[in-house]
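Intended use. Records like the one below are meant for learning the mapping from a protein sequence to its folded structure. Do not use them to infer anything beyond what is encoded.
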Amino acid sequence: MIICGSGPSIDLVDPAEGDVFALGGAHDYLISRGIVPVGWINADPLPWVAQYIQNPHPDVTYLLASHSHRFLFEALEGHRVVLWHNNCGAGTERVVAETRNHMTGAVRLMVSGGPTGATRAPFLGDAMGYRKFILCGIDGNGGHKAQGLRTRESVSLTVDGREWEVPLNFVKQAMAFETIAREFPEWSFEVKGDSFTSAVFRATREGAGQRRGECAAGVA
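Structure written out for the chain above:
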């Protein structure tokens, strides 16, 4: 499973290496370059996320969290949409439990996995049978190459012996990736590019550098 975000290393994506699943603005960027993702994943409830999908494609499966905004469902009307339930404390658990009670034999899977679509994607992929994950465009630094609609103040963090300028929202993402890398050794990860995210995985899985949780706690 190739999980593709909007960071600079998006151009390193190689569809020959696996099934491409896009996040955010990576969808339109990849399609404009002749790469049609197998799927597009959304875990964000905000209405402006619909701006990421200017050119929906009939061959893409749109994997939308059930709390996605109605604007997104309207933008994808007539396309292949698969619903999944995000275990994020937004009240979804209660609704899913009530639905299960009224649908005999129905199974409703709650997907966990951290604060961003990038950190949720491996858990969603695991439910679909994937065990090897390649991260492209999920740099955690260096800005966006594909469309990016959100900016955050940056902080300086030292990871694996190097200093990185990291937007605050990606600090939490890095903490989640550290946990994932440590707690799920059965999953194989490859992170494309020389980036903050690749440094986090390298430091966690090789035991080098300082722990991301400690680092992030110092800037929270």
